[in-house]
Amino acid sequence: MIGALALSFGAATALPATASPITITNVGITHFEKITLTGGALGGATWNGVYSGQIELMTSGGELGVWCVDLFHDIYLGHQYSATIVALNTDNRDSPAVLTTDQKSRIAAIAAFGNAVLDLRDPKSFDAVTLAAFTADLDRFKADHPADYSMLDTYSSAVSAAVQAAIWEVEYRLTATSADANFGAALTVIKAQASNYFGNIGGHALAIADPAHPNVRVQTQWVSQVPEPSSLLVFAAALVGLAIRYARRVKAI
After folding, report:
1. How many whole angstroms separate alpha carbon 117 and alpha carbon 181?
2. Is the four-CA dihedral 96, 2, 168, 248 of positive or negative sign?
3. Domain positions in the chain
4. Residuewise pLDDT in 10s, the chain (253 residues)
């Protein structure tokens, strides 16, 4: 199943099929809000009550703060999964659209920006070198935009939801809204500033599979080069983004 998923996501840039799967022992979410999504890849539909925020994956290499890049398949909190490293090339619909270079760059920048803002209190996604670089970028952002930085540093749930929503807006060309004014303010800042401070970040992806739920397709965006797949510690240090669908159904949470 994992190999098939990797092929469907872009076999030309995936690591060899012999790469060892990465074991995810738990899926959680701490900071999130329910938002509304309309337009874009959803066509004329409106999705209400979509859970939006940073996902926490527990692996033997540590806890990873990650982001969703797959709205069209389910993953469940508290479940265990196996994953392989692939490339983020499509938007993961059943009839997937190919992502442009600009889309992939912006997704990576937003994911990095979001993790830097959220994880500096609890740096679960970064090695020391990456953390130092992110800290320097955030210090520059704080100096350039003190009011925006203060807002992002204060409203964790709204910011977490806005980072995720910004990724979906770029990937699916849809519109994300919420009744929370802090969410709207955070979304505006993130879309305006993420690429300014994390614009040169590349990315790859993580395809997640669950034998009990063969429809699951998930990818993860991260900073740095492709890690050696046998080294979960290196993987944990580099990973910064996710691909989980936040199901519209409460039971998926």
Report:
1. 19
2. positive
3. 2-252
4. 112 222 222 222 222 333 567 788 898 998 999 999 999 999 989 999 999 998 888 877 677 788 888 888 777 888 888 877 767 888 888 888 999 989 988 988 898 888 888 876 666 666 666 677 778 888 999 999 999 999 999 999 999 999 999 999 999 999 999 999 999 999 999 999 998 888 766 555 566 765 555 455 554 444 333 333 333 333 333 333 333 333 333 333 3
Of 76, 66, 89, the residue nearest 7 (C-alpha)? 89
Residue in 43, 4, 20, 32 with CA at minimum distance from that of residue 175: 43
Look-up of token digits 């004329």: 44
What is the spatial distance between Cα 13 and Cα 7, in angstroms, rounded to a whole number? 9
